[in-house]
Amino acid sequence: MTLLLYPTLVFAQQDPQLSFNNEFNSYTNPSFMVNDYKLNVIAQHRQQWVGFDGRPQTTLVNASYRVDKAWSAFGVSVLLGAQTNGAAVFNYAFDGKIGEHHIVPGIQMGALFNTLDGSKLNPIDESDPNIIAGKSNGLAFDLGLSLAYRFRGLAVGFSANHLPAPTIEFEEGGTSSEYNVARHYYGYVSYEALLGRYFRLKPIAFVKTDAAFTQFDQQLWFGVRDIGRIFDGASIGLGYRFDDAVIVATEIKLNWFTIGYSYDIITSGLRKYSSGSHEAYLRVHMFSKTKEFKPNTLD
């Protein structure tokens, strides 16, 4: 990946690109900690544009616990990139429950961190005094707000991340550089419907923008459910990320955990240089599945 470097550094991809954009990703939207289980621990890893030198690689871990008596959910998210960059944040969501309706505001606070190694950069102007020659670490405060609405099989979410538009500063040998983080805005909607006793259908729409670049995903999932005491079902999904990739994915769900894998078939000009993108996740979910999140049956 070629990065254009100026006195203030601008990176092409800041928040990670993921194919499993679902209502359990509390890093993107902390309001999604209010879901169908009290305890959720999710580990997600993505190898993007395999075969492309300098490709993005992302590991994301979300953990949350819902306290029903406090009408609240608490959690943490840790994001790690390929070049010692990422985030560590605390998440809180308030479950404004009215009957079966859940209106859930959320907040996220923590830190963004990054390591810049100037010796590995290829600047336009090699004599630029504002680009460090060695390695330096930077840290900045981060804040995000979110809102979600859930009713049975319907989930709608909106979030605004990196609201301070923080600047991560790097200093080395008397030289300083800056890395500006743009505000990111996310929108999400999905509806899960039961088709009779054993089948389910779930369309998903997801949008992400930093006001300069907008990414739109749409997916359709079909699956079987309630197969046995341990095996809860399996699903296959097909999606399209506009001007980027076709997404093929699958999930297998057992009583206490779910595993998923997706493969992106690149449709952009990068297909000449990459064999595609791979993503996998493991979600451990425990305690008290809530009835009000069960989808409607379409007979």
Structure overview:
With 299 residues, this protein is an all-beta fold. The protein has a single domain, classed as monomeric porin ompg (Porin), CATH 2.40.160. It is built from no helices and 19 strands. The chain has strands at 8-9, 39-50, 57-67, 72-81, 86-94, 96-98, 101-117, 135-151, 154-161, 167-172, 175-180, 184-191, 193-195, 199-209, 214-225, 231-241, 245-254, 257-266, 276-286. The strands form 2 sheets. A 14-stranded antiparallel beta barrel has the order 2-3-4-5-7-8-9-12-14-15-16-17-18-19. The protein has a 3-stranded mixed β-sheet with strand order 1-11-10, with no helix packed on it. A hairpin with a 3-residue loop joins strand 13 and strand 14 (199-209). The protein is globular, with a radius of gyration of 20 Å. The model is unreliable at 1-13 (pLDDT under 50).
In short:
It contains no helices and 19 strands. It is mainly β and 299 residues long.
| Low-pLDDT residue spans | 1-13
CATH class: Mainly Beta
Question: What summary fits the major beta sheet?
Answer: 14 strands, antiparallel, barrel
Percent strand equals over 45%
Looking at the structure, the CATH topology is Porin
Chart the SSEs and their pairings.
Blueprint: E1 8-9, E2 39-50, E3 57-67, E4 72-81, E5 86-94, E6 96-98, E7 101-117, E8 135-151, E9 154-161, E10 167-172, E11 175-180, E12 184-191, E13 193-195, E14 199-209, E15 214-225, E16 231-241, E17 245-254, E18 257-266, E19 276-286
